[in-house]
Amino acid sequence: MSPDELANRFEYHPPKDDETRGAHEYVRQVVYGVAVLLDKRVPESREKSLMMTHLEEALMWANAAIARNE
């Protein structure tokens, strides 16, 4: 891995403009909406807990992709 790529993975990436902030907010709204819908339909279980954890992970990675590659 190049030093630049390594630095990019670990440095803070503040939103640079309103478009980037909007992209982060859009992703949060979409993933939250999916979580709400699934929460109503999926029975309480270990699998549901994992599902919610992975939705949180998807949100994190989507926001990382936006922040790191704008």
UniProtKB/TrEMBL annotation:
Name under which the protein is recorded: Acb2/Tad1 hairpin domain-containing protein
Superkingdom, natural source: Bacteria
Disordered: annotated span: 1-21
Lineage: Bacteria, Bacillati, Actinomycetota, Actinomycetes, Streptosporangiales
Acb2/Tad1 hairpin domain residues: 5-67
Protein keywords: Nucleotide-binding
Pfam families referenced in this protein's UniProt entry, alphabetically: Acb2_Tad1_hairpin
